[in-house]
Design a protein that fits this description.
With 83 residues, this protein is mainly alpha-helical. The chain has three helices and two strands; from the N terminus they run E-E-H-H-H. The termini are far apart. It has one domain. It is elongated. 0% of the residues are buried.
Amino acid sequence: MADEMKPFGLNIKVPKRTIKQSQDTIQSRVNSVWQPLFNFIEENQNVFNGNIAEEIEKYNLMSYNTGAILRNASPKINFDIKG
């Protein structure tokens, strides 16, 4: 049991398991703060690495295709305005 304890100062001994748990807790807290930022950068990597023209072209094409689909669609009125 004595080898499982680690001196902490002021003659206080803390179990090594407690130190390991606190290290894991601190690491998970730090990761939870920065992980969303890293995910955002990874998802939008084309914007951040200079391929912005490619991204703009992709969104322009999506917009054009959506507009073309809507222009060719026949209007469907599903409600009665006489009522």
